[in-house]
Automatic annotation (TrEMBL):
<feature type="domain" description="Ig-like">
    <location>
        <begin position="10"/>
        <end position="105"/>
    </location>
</feature>
<keyword id="KW-0472">Membrane</keyword>
<keyword id="KW-0325">Glycoprotein</keyword>
<dbReference type="GO" id="GO:0005886">
    <property type="term" value="C:plasma membrane"/>
</dbReference>
<dbReference type="InterPro" id="IPR051275">
    <property type="entry name" value="Cell_adhesion_signaling"/>
</dbReference>
<dbReference type="GO" id="GO:0050839">
    <property type="term" value="F:cell adhesion molecule binding"/>
</dbReference>
<dbReference type="InterPro" id="IPR007110">
    <property type="entry name" value="Ig-like_dom"/>
</dbReference>
<dbReference type="InterPro" id="IPR013783">
    <property type="entry name" value="Ig-like_fold"/>
</dbReference>
<keyword id="KW-0393">Immunoglobulin domain</keyword>
<dbReference type="InterPro" id="IPR036179">
    <property type="entry name" value="Ig-like_dom_sf"/>
</dbReference>
<keyword id="KW-1015">Disulfide bond</keyword>
<dbReference type="GO" id="GO:0098609">
    <property type="term" value="P:cell-cell adhesion"/>
</dbReference>
<dbReference type="Pfam" id="PF08205">
    <property type="entry name" value="C2-set_2"/>
</dbReference>
<dbReference type="InterPro" id="IPR013162">
    <property type="entry name" value="CD80_C2-set"/>
</dbReference>
<protein>
    <recommendedName>
        <fullName>Ig-like domain-containing protein</fullName>
    </recommendedName>
</protein>
<dbReference type="GO" id="GO:0005911">
    <property type="term" value="C:cell-cell junction"/>
</dbReference>
Amino acid sequence: MSPAVPPEDPTIDGAPEILLRAGTPYNLTCHTRSAKPAATMAWFRDGLPQDGAVTTTEVLADGKRESTTSLLPITPTDLDIGRVFSCRCSNEAVPGGKETSVRLNVHRE
């Protein structure tokens, strides 16, 4: 069996701060590449686990490593101003995982 390969550092689209409109649904999107086996993705809001994410994986051209994308649907409110959403990716090569985060800036019309 070949050795596990840790995922690259994850990225969240729009980081470090995303400007969103209150009441308008939005998908937070986190990507990581080149993991073997594919990375497991988890989302957190201010450190608390979040459910409802949709995760997809894609095998890279080498046929061994995989890229993973996770979408977390949210509908921001005024209470989300300044909240921090984090994405953590892990596999057996990095059981503690790698993490990145984004801060929400929410406004009204």
